[in-house]
Amino acid sequence: MTDPISAQSWSYSEALVAEDDVLTRARERAQEVGVTAIGSGGGAALRFLASVLDARAVVEIGTGTGVSGLWLLRGMRADGVLTTVDIETEHQRLARETFTEGGIATQRARTIAGSALEVLPRLTDGHYDIVFVDGDKTEYAAYLTEALRLLRPGGVVAFDNALWHDRVADPSVRDEETTAIRELIRQVSDDDALVPVLLPVGDGLLLAKKEWSPEAG
């Protein structure tokens, strides 16, 4: 077993893909309204994922001020559409500012205000390439259920904060949010219809690919 990487190496990898002024301003807005945005390493991973999948349709749970949404949009196809859900309308207004500053056409970002578990059932089954989750940690298992319905075969669900400030790896920590994330990781790992990986970028990014079913060929 190799030694864990140092804090210096972790910081170096996080900073590999530099953020521009648009993302910097989006992070400043996030701090002003008390939102914790995905880290730069996690954002770069989302852009990479969207690019590799040639993503045309993406769902985001937790709009924030548009940091993760802009990373995703920059990796998606030029005609790709991000559907982003958040209960806070003010956050979504700030996210739209971010998207506009980033040169994203209005029709490419659809913001829906409301509880994710009320909005997601209204979205189309099997239509989406990626479902990115950065919402209520205690609802992560419920988001997984919805994501697997929404994803096309070969699509990927991604969960931010999968290491939850180093709490998930510490068995002595048993608060509700940490326990919910641990249960999610167990569910994903035990599901033969998923191909999982847990990336130690940012605060942890859990990815799971929805396998192609035999019926799909």
Automatic annotation (TrEMBL):
- The answer on whether this UniProt entry bears the keyword Methyltransferase reads yes
Q: Biological process GO annotation list?
A: methylation
Record's InterPro entries?
Cation-dep_OMT, SAM-dependent_MTases_sf, SAM_O-MeTrfase
Report which superkingdom the organism of origin falls in: Bacteria
Q: What are the alphabetically sorted keywords of the record?
A: Methyltransferase, S-adenosyl-L-methionine, Transferase
Q: What is this protein called?
A: O-methyltransferase
Please verify whether the record's keywords include S-adenosyl-L-methionine.
yes
Report the PANTHER family cross-referenced here.
O-METHYLTRANSFERASE RV1220C-RELATED (PTHR10509:SF85), O-METHYLTRANSFERASE-RELATED (PTHR10509)
Q: Name one Pfam family in it.
A: Methyltransf_3
Q: Name one GO molecular function term.
A: S-adenosylmethionine-dependent methyltransferase activity
